[in-house]
């Protein structure tokens, strides 16, 4: 198998060419784990998660459209896009279908 000219500078991984050690180190916590830990911390008004929810509700009642959108998404789920359905007329018989096909081809 011949190599493509644009790939000649690439080398296969091997003992003399190991892959880079990228990515999150083993045992480190991801962002959601850390956020959940701090959201569960108790304060005078409940947890930080409670305070964030109250702040979101306050912003929504003040007319913040993004806050209203986030609040409704949390309460009722995200809206899904509605797709438009196109219905075509189905021919009554095969001869009618053939006639339509011929008309299209002769245009």
Blueprint (SSEs and pairs):
Layout: H1 31-39, E1 42-43, E2 46-47, H2 48-61, H3 65-76, H4 94-106
Antiparallel strand pairs: 1-2
Number of helices: 4
Could you tell me the strand content as a percent range? under 5%
Low-confidence stretches: none
Strand order of the largest sheet: 1-2
Strand and helix order: HEEHHH
Global shape? flat
The major beta sheet can be summarized as:
2 strands, antiparallel
Question: How far do the termini sit from each other?
Answer: 49 Å
Mean pLDDT: 80
User: Which structural category do the helix and sheet elements fall into?
Assistant: mainly alpha
Provide a quick synopsis of the model.
This protein has 107 residues and is mainly alpha-helical. Helices cover 45% and strands 4% of the residues.
In words, what does this structure look like?
With 107 residues, the protein is mainly alpha-helical. The protein has a domain at 29-80. The chain has four helices and two strands; from the N terminus they run H-E-E-H-H-H. It has helices at 31-39, 48-61, 65-76, 94-106, and strands at residues 42-43, 46-47. A two-stranded antiparallel ribbon has the order 1-2. Helix 2 packs across helix 3. The longest helix is centred in the middle third of the chain and has 14 residues, at 48-61. The mean pLDDT is 80.
Top keywords for this entry?
mainly alpha; 2 strands; flat
């Amino acid at each position: 198998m011949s190599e493509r000219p644009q790939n000649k500078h690439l080398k296969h991984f091997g003992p003399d060419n190991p892959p880079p050690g990228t990515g999150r180190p083993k045992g480190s916590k991801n962002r959601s784990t850390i956020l959940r830990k701090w959201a569960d911390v108790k304060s005078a008004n409940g947890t930080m998660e409670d305070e964030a929810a109250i702040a979101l509700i306050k912003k929504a009642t003040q007319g913040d459209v993004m806050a209203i959108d986030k609040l409704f998404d949390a309460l009722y789920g995200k809206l899904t896009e509605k797709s438009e359905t196109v219905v075509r007329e189905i021919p009554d018989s095969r001869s009618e279908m053939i006639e339509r096909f011929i008309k299209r081809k002769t245009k």
